[in-house]
Amino acid sequence: MTLPASISDREHAKFKETSEGETSVRVTTFSISEGLLFEQASSTVIYLAEGLFGALPSEPKWKIKKIDLSSGVRITSASTGFDQIWNDRAALIYV
Question: Does residue 18 contact residue 26 with C-beta atoms inside 8 Å?
Answer without folding.
Answer: no
